[in-house]
């Protein structure tokens, strides 16, 4: 799976985590490993221009999705003639997300993760125009985010454990075997 990210927002953002949550969401949605996705982070002025041009709404917004191809979930990477599925573009506005995160009571990075998953779901055909669609999309979005956080936390626990194990093993020495050290003094 190819995920390209370009930060044109002027805001320092840990891009690898945005790519990570996008990849996680695409994997959870069983999207082909041949899929291609582009994520662009922009400033408020660029987002306001896109929002007005494409949605005919004034001012900036948090996320916009621009599907490229009609995604066909039945297409398999091993089927004849299948090529990369160009999912499209997700455009995020970190400055807008920062303000939204403050109101929601969580970090800007958590908000960007939420918006990334939201954008992925839009590219896959989900919408929230009707109450039933909103329940489905937001429920799925929340489940994916919870699973992502759980996987991320478990990965951090494993890294911490490996680090602690390395410290213990470093104190003993990797080449040391029980009983191979100097004989105890009498």
Structure notes:
With 186 residues, the chain is α/β, with parallel strands linked by helices. 51% of the residues lie in helices and 13% in strands. The protein has 5 helices and 4 strands; from the N terminus they run E-H-E-H-E-E-H-H-H. It has helices at residues 15-28, 44-55, 94-104, 108-123, 131-172, and strands spanning 2-7, 36-41, 63-67, 86-92. Strand 1 (2-7), helix 1 (15-28) and strand 2 form a beta-alpha-beta unit. The termini are far apart.
Bin the helical content: 40-55%
CATH topology: Collagenase (Catalytic Domain)
Tell me the series of helices and strands, N- to C-terminal: EHEHEEHHH
Report the CATH C-level class: Alpha Beta
What count of helical segments does DSSP give?
5
User: How much beta, percentage-wise?
Assistant: 5-15%
CATH architecture: 3-Layer(aba) Sandwich
Give the overall pLDDT as a whole number.
86
């Amino acid at each position: 799976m190819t995920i390209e990210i370009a930060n044109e927002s002027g805001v320092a953002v840990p891009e690898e985590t945005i790519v990570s949550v996008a990849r996680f969401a695409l994997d959870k949605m069983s999207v082909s490993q041949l899929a291609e996705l582009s994520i662009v982070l922009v400033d408020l002025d660029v987002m306001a221009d896109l929002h007005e041009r494409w949605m005919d709404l004034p001012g900036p917004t948090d996320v916009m999705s621009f599907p490229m191809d009609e995604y066909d979930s039945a297409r398999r990477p091993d089927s004849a003639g299948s090529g990369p599925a160009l999912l499209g573009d997700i455009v995020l506005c970190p400055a807008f997300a920062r303000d939204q995160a403050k109101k929601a009571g969580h970090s800007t990075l958590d908000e960007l993760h939420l918006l990334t998953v939201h954008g992925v779901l839009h590219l896959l055909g989900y919408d929230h125009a009707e109450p039933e669609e909103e329940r489905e999309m937001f429920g799925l979005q929340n489940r994916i985010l919870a699973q992502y956080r759980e996987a991320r936390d478990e990965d951090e626990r494993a890294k911490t454990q490996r680090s602690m194990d390395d410290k213990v093993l470093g104190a003993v020495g990797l080449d040391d075997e029980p009983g191979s050290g100097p004989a105890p003094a009498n």
